[in-house]
Amino acid sequence: MTSANQLNEIRKRIEAKFTDAFLDGLMEGMDIAFGPVGNVLLPGFKDNIKGYDAKYLFTAGNGVSSSAIFKDGKMSTNSGAIKDWDTRVSFSTPAALRDFLLSKDQDILNSILKNEVAVDGNLAMIYRFGFISRDLMGRLGIGQG
Amino acid sequence: MGARRFASPYVGGFFEKTFRKGIAMAKITFPKTGLSLDHIKINGDVEQMKIDYFAASPEVDIERAELLTDYFLANGLFRRDRITALDAAKAYRHILKNRKPVVRHTFGYKKIKGQKGMVRLDLRDKSPFAGSTTSKSKGVILYPEWLALTLWPELHTMENRAANPFQLSGEDADTLNSKVFPAWINFNIMDLTRNKVYGAGEKSSPLLKLHDYLVFFLVSKFQCISHTIPDFKKALGVGLRGVIDEAKTKQAKAGGEEQKDFYQAMIEGMTGIIEYSHSLADEAARLAINAHDSEKDELSEIAGIYRNVPENPATTFREGLTTIWLCWIACHLENSNTGLSLGRLDQLLYPLYRDDVDAGRLTPEKAVELVCHLWLKIGDHVPSIPESGEQLFGGTGSNQAITLGGVDENGEDAVNDLTYVMLRATELMMLRDPNLNCRYHPEKSSREYLERICEVNVNTRATPAMHNDRAIIDAMMKKGESEKQARDYGVVGCVEPTSAGRGYMATGAILLNLASALEMTLFNGRHRHTGDAQIGPKTGDPAKFTSYLQFRSAFETQARWLMKQAVTLNNIAGGIHQKYHPTPILSTLFEGPMEKGVDLVFAGAERNSSGVAIIGFADTADCLSAVEKKVYGDQSLTWDDLMDALEKNYKGYEALQTELRNPAKTPKYGNEDSLADQNAAFIAEMLDDEFGKSPHYRGAGIHYRVGYWTMTSHAGYGRLTKALPNGRGDRENFTSGITPVSGETPGLTKTLNSVASVPSRFLSSGVAFNIKYTPYQSMVVDGENEEAIRAKMIKSFADSVAGYFQGDGNGSKGGVEIQFNITDEKIFRDAQNNPDKYVDLLVRVSGYTAYFIDLNPQMQNEIIERTEYDLFTCKAVTYNL
Q1: Does the beta-carbon distance from A127 to B194 stay under 8 Å?
Q2: Which of B80, B404, B781, B789 has the maximal Cβ count within 10 Å?
Q3: Is A144 in the B-facing interface, judged by CB distances under 8 Å?
Q4: Residue A9 is part of a domain; what is its CATH number?
């Protein structure tokens, strides 16, 4: 498979979950992007987490949790809650989380207005996560319209 | 050619006489009919620079952030649990010494409509003032210790923002992402404060939740303290070398090591400014070698001036402006560009101006030109607002207020020729920053001066704001300022009066949404924005209240509780500033810290306070009045119906909504209705009482002051708030500042009297009272009698202000402040449709000035919807467009 085809495959997998399972899609995309394949397909992307040590907990409105842990230049994802998170993002729906992280059109206030996303712990870490998410989407050409 | 040296008018006895005993030499030599100085036009160089200024988009500048990060990394400061004043001063000296000395900006960037990214814009920089706040011609200055990290998600996209895009190179974005921002991820004031609030083992807190909901209050210490006026007198009078000598003398006598270090911090900071001025002088001299003709002379003159000041006393008007400019740059390298203000420049610089003019070294024409250049320089930076913040604070500049006129320390009229020079420069430049404010004393200021201020408003459409000396001086004295301190007030940020150079008032510390207290009263401590959560105290089901006073008492309980929460968080954040962000440069340029040997953040200033800005004042007052009159007065409305109407956003209750909005049917603040005005006064008194006794992190005896200015927050907070009992619908804008609700005050005179009736003693942190007048151009038919109509408008304009400031003679000190938009709805609508035609259309928001096209649509509409009055009929104007 060519690099272009591989990228296209990743893009499709994320886009397929963009609406109903955004976090799953994003985590899956990051898993690949920060892994060995990502080194080849997305050069430089891994630099985003060089020396980064942080634990994120994401909790959906239905109570389902998942986490992303960055350590030693690697990322690992888990389903289920972790206790020693640095930043916790609680969101009502996958779309609300997507808008919160990726919105380009000033919709962040709308997320707050609808009280759909709340952040506990370190706030600057969510800004960094927002950058990583947007960088990945930008490199994959998702949501660039 | 070096600068020629003259004796400083500030030195020795003259300095003592001028600044320690009050300026007693104000003089107006311009003829009464020539105060407009309208024979002075903008010259070619300034005109070109103004065109470039408006064409250029802001560029994110990483210089300060990177130099600061490098210094912190190299010196292990990120591992420290306290940053001392000396640590900070050394870091700022490092920045001043190592930053690029920019004498001439040669290019910037501009946005082309419909295109992605930005294109290069060649600049023709001829400024007599070298140096800039950032390394860019119009820079976004980054403060990673505060909120710069909120830009992180946008590093690759901010060039293509829908509103107010910023230019940022890919290389600089990488530096921020890989080095600068990661270093501050746990060391910024916001997260340091959050950790402090959480306590050991916790990462969630009801207090922070309350803040994060946004709808209740905002504590701005995560972004700044700023919001004050430095003292430039010593820098002008004895030069920074003289200040350093004073610090050395104090240091030699200081008792403890900490105090000795503090004086050393002062020395480091001032030395850094001198080093920066010398590097600019060297750069100017270097550029002069290959320059030709007048540019060669100009660069040589810059080199000579910058070798001399601010190190030594200023001896000419231009040197005085240069001293202030360089100190101003240094203040902004230390303190975020949020409301830091310049004070009474016409008073500070008048001795130099007078000396130069009397000696034949300066003409008013040249003075206007120099001031135009300085105004452009002052506007050379913008705040780093993230895309989401555009909705709450969109279009704002740095709100650098300048204050003109008023009385001197002896209570006499202080307006002088330089006041008129600066007014003319303002009129010619029409810039958002600086934010110009004029003081007016009903008994001391001249009618000619008042009419001139009105004329500048007519010509610029939005500036300057006007402040009533009598009301403000009285309010400040009631808060503890001496008469002399109060008389020497300057305006901070938007509208906040502060004793200039000696009051560390942090006037923008808290934004409090008063309507949330009302909301919690209606829902027994809950808020519709936060659902079923019990937020405030349980004050009972209002349907069971048997009297209006019971309802009002419940509201007071909710409001006082909310105020306590906001103060608690602000005090914690203030403690974090004390631990991690002392301010040695600003402390040196201030009255108090040198004498006490104490930094400003530890109450080193002569006067101390923090300010709270109230959002939703008029809406809340009108809600109380509606409940009082309709539910408990004539009992025409039941609680069940009212709550059902609110739940349904008045759908099915349209007649009720119309009645609640009708000032003839329901008491409305702003109509000289005693019930409504009493409710407004009750709120003002209650807020002043609670905040006025609240404890303060800087120490005992220091309290909070209340102001009524809202920037654009009344639109943002409006979006977070559902329907209210005053007939306001879901998500509608609140009314700005202390202004009555738009569209509900048909008579101008009653509106002015009503606002003036709110006791000024409760408004000690200033008010923004927005009034919109129909421009005279709209009244001219076929070009006939244009000049006569214009003159009549200015006279009526001045009459309206004089009446508002006069008060009723029964103990009232008159209205506190008033500001204007002199643009009609047709022009605003055209600007919305054709923004490119209106790049410099200046508007008053609530406090600050902004460019109309920079505002988000909701804020634009709020300004359009404001009540517009025809000054000839004193009636509200309606349009059918």
Answers
A1: no
A2: B404
A3: no
A4: 3.30.1050.10
What part of B 507-566 touches A (C-beta under 8 Å)? Answer: 529-531
| Cα B631 to Cα B105, B544, B618, B671, distances in angstroms | 64, 12, 19, 21
Lateral strand order in the sheet of B217-219: B217-219, B510-513, B610-615, B704-707
A101 at B interface, C-beta within 8 A: yes
Tell whether A50 lies on the interface with B, counting CB pairs under 8 A.
yes
Residue of chain A whose alpha carbon sits nearest to that of B210: A118
- Point out the residue among B150, B212, B391 whose CB comes nearest to the CB of A127: B150
Helix (H) or strand (E) holding B439, with range, is: strand B435-440
- Rg of chain B over Cα atoms, rounded to whole angstroms, equals 26
* A106/B204 touch (CB, cutoff 8 Å), yes or no: no
pLDDT digits (tens, 9 = 90+) for B685-708: 999 999 999 999 999 999 999 999
Query: Would an 8 Å CB–CB cutoff place A46 in contact with chain B?
Result: no
B384 burial (CB, 10 Å; 0-12 / 13-18 / 19+) is: buried
Report the alpha-carbon distance of residue B364 to residue B354 in Å, rounded.
10
Are the Cβ atoms of B156 and A134 closer than 8 angstroms?
Answer: yes
- Report the predicted TM-score, pTM, of the whole model to 2 decimal places: 0.96
Question: Could you tell me if A73 lies within 8 Å of chain B, comparing CB atoms?
Answer: no
Which phi and psi angles does B819 have, rounded to 5°? -145, 160
Domain count, chain A: 1
Query: Does some domain include residue A34?
Result: yes
Strand partners, A70: A54, A75
CB contact residues (below 8 A), chain B span 366-405, against chain A? 387-388, 390-392
Subunit contact B194:A106, Cβ cutoff 8 A = no
Q: Note whether B212 contacts A119, CB cutoff 8 Å.
A: yes
- Residues in B closer than 8 angstroms to A90, CB to CB, are none
Cβ pair A101, A134 in contact under 8 A: yes
Question: What tens digit of pLDDT does each residue of B533-543 get?
Answer: 999 999 999 99
Classify residue A129: in a domain, yes or no: yes
Asked if B462 contacts B843 with a C-beta cutoff of 8 angstroms, the reply is yes
Residue B97: which of B235, B271, B266 has the closest Cα? Answer: B271
For residue B797, the model assigns a pLDDT of 98
* Cβ atoms B504, B476 nearer than 8 A: no
Our CA-based measurement puts residue A6 at a distance from the nearest CA of chain B, in whole angstroms, of 24
What is the chain B residue with the closest CA to A101? B153
Q: Return the closest-CA partner of residue B70 out of B98, B43, B35.
A: B98
A124 vs B194: CB contact, 8 Å cut-off?
no
SS3 B406: coil
Please report, rounded to a whole number, the percentage of residues in chain B having pLDDT higher than 70.
96
Structure tokens at B718: 């409006």
- Domain-located, residue A37: yes
B817-854 pLDDT, tens digit per residue, is: 999 999 999 999 999 999 989 999 999 988 889 999 98
Closest CA to B816 of B706, B693, B656: B706
What chain B residue is nearest to A114 in terms of C-alpha separation? Answer: B529
Q: What is the domain extent for residue A26?
A: 3-140
Query: Which of B795, B794, B815 has its CA nearest to residue B803?
Result: B815
Q: How many residues does chain B have?
A: 881
| Count of CB pairs separated by less than 8 Å, A with B | 91
Any domain includes A145: no
Neighbours of A132 (CB within 10 A): 24
B202, two tokens: 């916790």
Phi, psi of B555 (to 5 degrees): -60, -45
Angle (CA) B442-B446-B448 rounded to 5° is 130
Cα gap B720→B216, rounded to integer Å: 10
The chain A residue lying nearest B173, using CA atoms, is A131
B748-756 vs B674-693: helix crossing angle, rounded to 10: 30
Scanning B129-216, the segments in alpha helix (DSSP H) are: 170-175, 181-183, 189-198, 206-212
